[in-house]
Amino acid sequence: MENNNTNKNQQQNMEGLNITDEQLQKLIQSETDKVRTNYSKQVKDLEGKITEYEEKQKEYEQKEKYYKTIDVLKENNIPSQLAKWIDIDIENEEEINELKKVFKNNKDTGYKPQTQRKDDDYSKAEKEGNVQGMISNKLGRLFQ
């Protein structure tokens, strides 16, 4: 009985509006299109934010790796300025030890003066700020 009353009320409402089924379908379709368009815009905006955040995440990961590389290089007495140019796996001890050996070998084979230069009279006078001593030393060498 209640179901019949509901149907009658719906029919009366429909008759009062004078809308055909075709017009009703167009209205429903129009409203669903509006909602769908709104949601698709929101989805596109959120997808754009996702890609933006993924790019930022990659940047942060690169920076983190760079700073970790600097720390590892410093710990192993390797110039930390090289972190920009070398790409090593900082978790791999073999790579770090190999790099450490290369720098140690280069340091060992580099130029090392055998004797230290002795300060001459001119250098001593220069350190003391003695202009007269510097001039007399230069003139003395000139006339030897």
TrEMBL record:
Coiled-coil residue spans: 36-63
Region entry Disordered, spans: 1-22, 104-144
Domain of life: Bacteria
UniProt keyword annotations, A-Z: Coiled coil
Biased composition (Low complexity): 1-13
Biased composition (Basic and acidic residues): 104-129
Full protein name: Phage minor structural protein GP20
Biological source species: Sporanaerobacter acetigenes DSM 13106
